[in-house]
Amino acid sequence: MHALGPFLYAIQTSEPCCITYNSGVEKKRTEARPASTRSTSARSTSARSRDRGRATRRRLIEATAQLCKERPGAEVSVAEIANAAGVFPNQVTYYFGSKDSLLVHAAFLGLLHDARRIERIGLQAPDAAAFRRNVARAVLAMPSLPPVARALAAAISKPELAPVVDRHLQLLFRQSERFVGRLVDSRGWRTRRPLGVEARTFWSTALGAVLLVRAGAQGTVAELDLAGALTLHDEPER
């Protein structure tokens, strides 16, 4: 119950597209073209602009995720992120609104990378009991879990981040649900509650444990029975 399965990390863009001309001559040349030609040219330019925007967003997210991985818990500046991504610092706010929003995207990208490894671990389990045990152990050891927990905490104090966090969480839940659904179908396993509830319960338990530890609660996440949050089983129904 993880971002297993093909956890498709959708990078959506909403950047404005603004086409300007450098001279009146260029404008006259454009106006002299047939309307259909101008329309096709405008669409082509708009498409290229969107592609560049997506590529820039992707570089920023990947660069931020790498910096956070190299320096866990350390503060990363906008200048460092921009330098690593090969863009201008103001492009951080242009594409994401704020550094905090970018950090949320990067945190969930890290979760995606970790989830691919956990998927392989889960698929190697010979039975449902081993699946629950192995997946729970691997998820609690994921280096991406603390950054995601920080993203959740940031959304509490900064309401403008809440929609960003929610989109990523909903994607995580859906992909987890689909993965377990395929596992149930292919192996004949079952869950004792709906798949959607299973996914949300598992991830809420894992992230909640990390938040508690970060807030100063006594103990560690290792003391948590995360496997118990999974009801996936292969025993026959009684």
Written account of the structure:
This protein starts with 23 loop residues before the first helix and ends in a 24-residue tail after the last helix. The chain contains nine helices and no strands. Residues 2-30 have low confidence and may be disordered. Helix content is 66%, strand content 0%. By secondary structure, it is mostly helical.
Shape: globular
Radius of gyration: 22 Å
Q: How large is the count of helical segments?
A: 9
**What integer is the average pLDDT?**
80
Strand content: under 5%
| Oligomeric state of the chains present here | single chain
Specify the helix fraction band.
55-70%
SS class: mainly alpha
Which sheet architecture does the biggest sheet show? none
User: Secondary-structure element order, as H and E?
Assistant: HHHHHHHHH
Tell me the number of strands: 0
Taking the alpha carbons of the first and last residues, their distance comes to 24 Å
Pick out the low-confidence regions: 2-30
Map the helices and strands.
Layout: H1 24-32, H2 35-70, H3 78-85, H4 90-96, H5 99-123, H6 128-140, H7 145-157, H8 162-187, H9 195-214
Helix pairs in contact: 2-3, 2-4, 2-5, 5-6, 5-7, 5-8, 7-9, 8-9
What does this entry show, briefly?
With 238 residues, the chain is mainly alpha-helical. It has nine helices and no strands.
Features:
disordered N terminus; 0% strand; mainly alpha; 9 helices; 238 residues; globular; 66% helix
